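Quick one, T. Sequence first:
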Amino acid sequence: MNDLCCDIGYKSINHAGEQLCGDHVDIAQQEDGSTVIVLADGLGSGVKASILSTLTSKIISTMLAAGLSLEECVETIAATLPVCSVRGVAYSTFTILRLIQNHTAEVIQYDNPHVIVIRNGENWEYEKHEVIIGGKTIYRSVIRLEEDDVFVAMSDGCPHAGLGRAYNFGWKTEDIITFMEAMSLCGYTAKTLSTLLIDECDRLYGNEPGDDATACVVRIRKRIPMNILFGPPSNRDDIDRMMSLFFSKEGKHIICGGTTASIAAKWLGRTLRPSLDFTTGDVPPIAYLDGVDLVTEGVITVNRVVENAKDYLGENRRYDTWSRGKDGASMISRLLFEEATDINFYVGRAVNPAHQNPDLPINFHIKMNLVQELSAALTQMGKRIKVSHF
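Structure tokens:
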């Protein structure tokens, strides 16, 4: 293993008038720490295409994650989803990215637009070996990973964008490459890069897509640890152990909660300096403590971070707000979503008497649920999460 990790993000838009997307992305983890990503594009659009692409991506990712060979996976797909008798084309096409312990990428492509690889801000041409499996022409590549490599997998709805509108023959692959080369230099996360690409496709379609379009982006980056302290321990005797573990960890340190911050300030022998600057009306202001990168209010702020995380995994509509906001929730969101790769939670089980007021919609269980929901969302983003309770 090395100190690299993969940041994965994807976004889709549906064919105009359809409630379901005919493309599907599935991600599975292997026991050796490798990651399998499958982008499948079902024939046509709507319900039928959605079912076909979901079946294809799920079957391939599950079989590869279980250690079966590519040949077995493709033969299973060939038997399960035969070629359309009317159009003479496959019911579902697919792209597979298998990231082997974050040092090698195996790229397997069948009838989808070829994966774009951007290295050092420029398109990087990689070798593609043609093989015939189950009567299907498959392109297979093995690529040694380097820091800041960006892989862009797409369904054919992306190069078809603007067909008959902005462009006579759609958004050509070389134009998409130029667009992504510029975006890759900005340091954006994989999710943001995929969002930018799909939003541009939607614009070229005139916001009425003539096909489902999906972009899945993988960005290779170095691991960056982050530490969050949320709530005081249930037993006061555990304060010293909790604080020692928290402050001894490598990476930035975030404290959520006024009582928790006061305890940390006393343990450090430093002064906690609260701010009265309400940058937004519904998120409490932050505070300052030497030795801590960010101090925020507790439950209300973390609840907003959870909401941002769920949106980030979905439509990513809140990005413009939290990516620029100066409130505590926005600042935590940037640190966790865009910067951190390994996140350590130190969660105190103490019950805050103020939260026991029946007129307040906050209680101990809500705090625990917030940590659970946030951990689950961050895991789905590809982060390594460790939660310690005190």
